[in-house]
Input
Amino acid sequence: AVFGWLRSVQPDTSLREGVLRYADQVAELARVPVVIMGHFHSEDRRALPGGGLYLNTGTWIPVWDPGDSLRERVQFTFADMKRSGVYLRFWDPRAGHPRRCILLED
Output
């Protein structure tokens, strides 16, 4: 429903840009420093225009993406909130502990 609303209100905006604007509004209205979403199948971390932080945890199911050859096919990503900050991490089953996600720019 949110994505349909975004497209109707901002038809000239890409869906990702619309989600970032929506996340910025959520951060402002809820007065929170971090907005975490999980709709898109790729991980993302971006500063919001209003000063907040947007995280997208991606998906835990295999998704074919032709530009995704630099990482595991399934990456178990999650948001890790610490006093020092909020991080995107993934569970490394071979190592038996989480590792920090490396995000590639679009």
Q: What stands out?
A: The chain has a mean pLDDT of 79. The longest helix spans residues 15-30. Helices lie at 2-9, 15-30. The beta strands are 34-37, 44-47, 53-56, 76-82, 85-92, 97-100.
